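Task: fold both queries, return tokens.
Query 1:
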Amino acid sequence: MMMKVSLLKTGIRVTAVCALALAAATPVQADPGDFGAMPGLWKILVRHVINGKAGKPEVHWHCVDEGADPWTTFAAWTPAEGECTATDQQRRSTSLAWKLTCKGASPASAHVDFDSAKHYTGSVTVEGRGEITQVEGARYAACTSPQD
């Protein structure tokens, strides 16, 4: 009887270890809902930086749905020169950071950082040139219709 109990306990341990190993090997997809930004109508100010000075802001309005993908919602504003591809995306609960590889341009990096669920700042920086774009977003109100 002792032998069966010991084998049973060993089998449970092996199963648990295998389950943990599989969980560790499986890539974890973050739920967009765990990102620290509130849904609603956002006012986004984009400023192009020339010779170290930020220009007049371009105002954009964007309605963010509950559970929206942070990459398509808060990282879509990053204008850089040429056709660009985002790589090396790093996401935390209150920030996004990524690299930009652009045709015919120097490598760039971008980020957005939330200081609250209703406000963020960010920028695009080009290697060898410095900051070329600044962005600031603030949640303004609830969305009232899909056209917001």
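Query 1 returned. Query 2:
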Amino acid sequence: MSTVRARLSPQESRSAALEAARALLIEAGPQAVTLKAVAARIGRTHANLLHHFGSASELQAELGRYLSERITAAIGDAVVRARQGEADPREIVDRTFDAFGREGAGALAAWMILSGNRDALNPVLEAIHDLVDHLGAGHEDRPVHETTLWLVLAALGDSLLGESMAAALGLPPGRARDLARDHLLASMGLAAEPHRA
């Protein structure tokens, strides 16, 4: 019995592949994001994905771009709403840590670096740079670039080693996120809440 495949436009096919790649990244890590696995997930052939992406490293680069666009939009929204008093500034930290942890951006970045595919990080870095420039416009009195630097590095480190390092130091899981929230609130002149032991 043969299955009938729905005819997708090239853009729809790329979008489906990127969403499948994101799901594989979250479920099984960056090593699982292969052309063959993504093709199987969306009912396409390896050759079809090769046509759209060229190689596994190009698929990973596109996945990085796809994730960074989603992530920077969500973080940018949280920053704007926090500035307007419509959201708790802690949401900025939570969205950043979630992006690198639960959404898999940290594992993907590490995988790209360790596999020698550093150029694939350029779209991610450009998206962050564009967001920071946008958020910094009109707020030159605030250390937007410096805040972004420490927050991204903290979230990246936490996604890769945070839980293990906290356990090794006898600290509760999520302590790095708590510290990042405190640091952000302090940089905004707001009081941090006491932490549970």
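Both queries returned. Flag for query 2: The mean pLDDT is 86.
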